[in-house]
């Protein structure tokens, strides 16, 4: 068993490999969403889920071609816990690595990573520029438009919902609620 960093330590590690404000913000949003779901599914390990969310794109900015591969090397060099390494790497399943999400936490990370980007893109198009008044139908409409937020894989989002045994509507609705829960601490 390796080390599980605190949120502060994970943030410092993230900032070592990421400087772009967009990537840092995305990491915080995913971390918050993971914490929201952890409250329901694994309340004793909320910080662990949040750390996984924070570090999920650790290698993306500096090593985009080795995303989900290089992070494993970086994290192992730091002596981090294999459960954390696996969770972070598994969000690249079928895209970069052949590590399928198995634990509920891994499945939620896989399903919500791309979706938070899509929801965020829909939200900033609204007059409020917020998720606070965002509805499922607005996200569904943009989900069907392949050109909108084209970098957010609809295939991954749909596969994530299937892995969780949730409908796409349920995944989107619950992720909107998770992102709303962060509006007190972040500008979303």
What do you see in this structure?
Helix 2 runs antiparallel to helix 3 (46-55). The radius of gyration is 15 Å and the shape is globular. The chain contains 9 helices and no strands. It has one domain (7-180): Hypothetical protein af1432 (Orthogonal Bundle). By secondary structure, it is mainly alpha-helical. InterPro entries: HDIG_dom (IPR006675). This is HDIG domain-containing protein.
Helix-strand layout with pairing:
Blueprint: H1 7-17, H2 21-41, H3 46-55, H4 70-77, H5 82-90, H6 104-124, H7 136-143, H8 154-164, H9 168-180
Helix pairs in contact: 1-3, 2-3, 2-6, 3-5, 4-5, 5-6, 6-8, 6-9
Describe the sheet with the most strands.
none
Helicity level, as a percent range? 55-70%
Shape: globular
If you consult CATH, what is the topology? Hypothetical protein af1432
Summarize model confidence as the mean pLDDT. Answer: 95
**Number of domain units:** 1
SS-derived structural category: mainly alpha
Proper CATH architecture? Orthogonal Bundle
Along the chain, the helix and strand elements come as HHHHHHHHH
Strand content: under 5%
Low-confidence stretches: none
Compute the number of strand runs. Answer: 0
Instruction: Name the CATH class.
Output: Mainly Alpha
Provide the gyration radius in Å.
15 Å
What kind of assembly state do the chains in view correspond to? single chain
How many separate helices?
A: 9
